[in-house]
Amino acid sequence: MRAFVAIALLACATVANAQSVLIRGATVHTVGDQGVLSNADVLVRDGRVAAVGTGLSAPSGATTVEANGRALTPGLFAGLSAIGIEEVSLEPTTADASVILTAPAFEMQWRPEFDVTTAYNPRSVLVPVARIEGLTWTMLTPGSGEGGAFLAGQGGAVSLDGRYDAVLGGTRTLFINLGGNNNTLSAGSRSGQWMLLDQAIRETRTPTTQDEHLLLHPLGREALARYLNGGRVVFGVSRAADIRRAIAFAKRNGMKPVIAGGAEAWVVADELAREKVPVLLDALENLPYSFDEIGARLDNAALLNKAGVRIAFTQFGESHNARKIRQLAGNAVAHGLPKDAALAALTVQPAEIFGLAGERGRIARGQVADLVLWSGDPLEVTSAADQVWIGGRALEMRSRQTELRDRYLKRLQ
Amino acid sequence: MHGIRYLLCCALLTSACTGAPAQQDTPQAKQAEAVAVPAAPANPYPSTYQPAAAPATLIRGATVLTGTGARLDNADVLISNNRIEAVGQNLNAPAGARVIDASGRWVTPGLIDVHSHLGVYASPGVNASSDGNEATDPVTANVWAEHGVWPQDPGFETALEGGITSLQILPGSANLIGGRGVTLKNVPATSYQAMKFPDAPQGLKMACGENPKRVYGGQARAPSTRMGNVAGYRQAFADAQDYREQWRKYERDFAEYQKKNADKKDKNDKKDGEEGNEPPTPPKRDLKSETLVAAMNGDIRVHIHCYRSDEMSIMLDLSKEFGFKIAAFHHAIEAYKIADRLAANGVCGAEWADWWGSKMEMFDGIQENLALTDLPKNGCAIVHSDSDEGIQRLNQEAGKAMSRGNRAGLNITPEHAIRWLTANPARALGIDQQTGTLEPGKMADVVIWNGTPFSVYALAEQVFVDGVLEFDREHPSPQPRSDFLLGQPGEGAQP
Question: Quick one: pLDDT at residue B269?
Fold first, then answer.
């Protein structure tokens, strides 16, 4: 109980008052038209970027931060995650990512109306751990657990600033997990996945009152219907053949597809580029973890980028160590991805994919002031965030982990 | 999409000297043995590894981190006869030597991972290749990880490309005592024996905490609590003590029998093995106890999967109760809370740089753990992976840990931090006389990096195992090393 109280206190002490801030003399990675600006200033007012340039003067009452040439980037995407919806993965009372109905296969129930963002806890200890490393937003993602459904439900983006109403407007997304890893949820075959998806679409388009085994409840049909009219659907899929099928399925049914995983996306890079289908990928995935990923390779990101596919980085099933996402980007650079594309894949590209680019992902006038000042190269493992702002407010750079460090470092010295 | 694979893995390793009693089927055989018992017989699964002949090699003009704590700028490393011949400045190339201009490059000892499940949890992760946890009994000290190693696991090659030249393959952590681990050289082979590190001691994998009690408690079997865990270790070691005593008694009886027969003068005395003068019968071999006796004898190194400081403290007492030495605590998430105690006991902490939180016993992870484990005098920090992804970039893990320590006000240099993935794991594995540093006479396990190895952009350009160039980034093998990937559209296939 005591630990619980300590955690809660920490979560409260997150942000200072919003006020004007002038960050002076930074190497500003705008991730936009202005590219990288040396020795530039960024003025933040009312939570937004008010100006980007050189020789800006501080309004009265503004806090001035001397960057001394350090890198300033937009706040980073924490990837698809369960930050704030899963405190300890193996403790069921703290894990809310999946809906598990355990219905027998012949009475399978799908709940596309399941919305995992309603479980979000902004006071989770994972939130400060992630954001003091420069991660300012994440995409909460429902899971497909044993006894659940491969159509996992809906997720949405949240800001990691610690507020209760953290869901970012317009980011609602449906998640469907395909491939051999989900065969146990589709009657033993990946063909069963398309069969069941077609059934769900038909139930939605042509509701019936007949007494038959329905996959969907009325609310589920309503939820799914919203995605049949240009709604964003993330397909978790790795194998090249399955990726093509997912694109065709989405097209046929009016969905806007996003590929997540995509270990073999490089094989169908031209088609992804032509159909303007983005890919969320783990750039460290280079082993054939399953027979869906035989073609996994370290230059997947570089090849996709070169082919003109929009990419963003994510880890899969990793929330506690979401901060490792920077390392994915750096390794993609080591394997051929241009540095600016790698930073974009942590900032503006995921913002574009989830409909946030008008507000987030770049350093430009009018953008929400989610900013990170780095001790060095933002993609380098030996660099760290010196200061993070979310919505223009400077975060207190503390977490439960820094508290533990300080307590025990003192005892050892 | 493989995070969950971490959870049940983790084990420990070992390699040669088994302490197993010799086969003694007949009285004649018994008699032939001058010394009876659990004398170490020839290893029944010996290493067949032999490094190929390789030309003498002079690596010239590099920044060399020797693994002994030294950094030499603009220095050379000379390899001949599969060994390090010299490290220093302005070395001469012997006639016919291969000379490598390494200016601007960094050179380190080959990296060593004390905790891998390559081969026993191979890629692809299909049911048929799930050979890392004999989760049918909480004490399976009788199983050997090496008997589950599939040498065609594609992960060996990707680890090599990350500079890994030696690695310990451990059984998983489902069990209190999971079995023996094996140390391998990271070379292509069609049998594990051809990878087996010559004369490396085997390891013993034990596991604290949540995994064993979850696996067996879930089946309404013991252990279902941490109390049950400790009772399980104690009973297993108590049984092994009893077993050792049986053999000691047999040894005494046998010696007496031999003495008695040697003293015989009278022709009418019964002959050896004749009715009424049978030699004593040896105890039945018990493979579980054999392993634990070897651990108590110090022939097998004890590696314990253990996260929490309180549980590590219990295991230290357990080791004293039964007289064995702990080489390292693996996944020691809370090592920083008892770093001074670990150092005082000469126990290493093998750790990740930043992974935490999936389980309750991982909730107190901090990014400075390795740096703090290293801090006390005689502290022994080891960067480990337990992961087919992490093992490909132990150098980056060390970079993270070093920089977090320095951010906390410590002063950790690259020449010191490199020991976390070279000399220190070699020490824990008992192979530090053979490898782990660049010193004359040692195995020529060497990596040439494209720059500082502690960078996210660092790539191993050339990796030597015993002086043999096993990986050359500029001239990659046109085909995958793994038979499994041969003829499949994987890395190396044309986009």
Answer: 63
Ranges of each domain in chain A = 17-75+362-395, 77-360
CA distance B386 to B417: 20
Pairwise CA distance, residues B330 & B385, whole Å: 10
User: Domain coordinates of chain B in residue numbers?
Assistant: 3-29+32-47+111-241+285-432
At A343-377, the pLDDT tens digits run: 999 999 999 999 999 999 999 999 999 999 999 99
CATH 3.20.20.140 applies to domain A77-360: yes
DSSP label at A368? Answer: B
Is pLDDT above 80 for B268? no
B372 in A contact zone (CB under 8 Å): yes
Rounded to 5 degrees, φ, ψ at A301 are: -60, -45
Tell me the percentage of chain B whose pLDDT exceeds 70: 88
Contact B372/A412, CB-based, under 8 Å? yes
Instruction: Report, as an integer, the average pLDDT of B347-375.
Output: 98
Tokens representing A144 are 């497909």
Confidence at residue A18, expressed as pLDDT on a 0 to 100 scale: 55
Chain A: nearest CA to B295, how far in angstroms? 31
Instruction: Give, in order, the Cα–Cα distances in Å from A167 to each of A106, A158, A173, B248.
Output: 36, 4, 12, 70
Q: Which two three-digit tokens encode residue A410?
A: 């003192």
The answer to whether A203 contacts chain B (CB < 8 Å) is no
DSSP string, B29-42: HHHH-SS-SS----
Q: Which helix (H) or strand (E) holds A151?
A: strand A151-159
Contact A100, A139 (CB under 8 A): no
**pLDDT > 80? residue A85:** yes
ipTM > 0.85? yes
Classify domain A17-75+362-395 at the CATH class level: mainly beta
pTM for this predicted structure: 0.93
Is domain B3-29+32-47+111-241+285-432 annotated with CATH 3.20.20.140? yes
Give the nearest partner residue to A334 out of B123, B155, B456, using CB atoms: B456
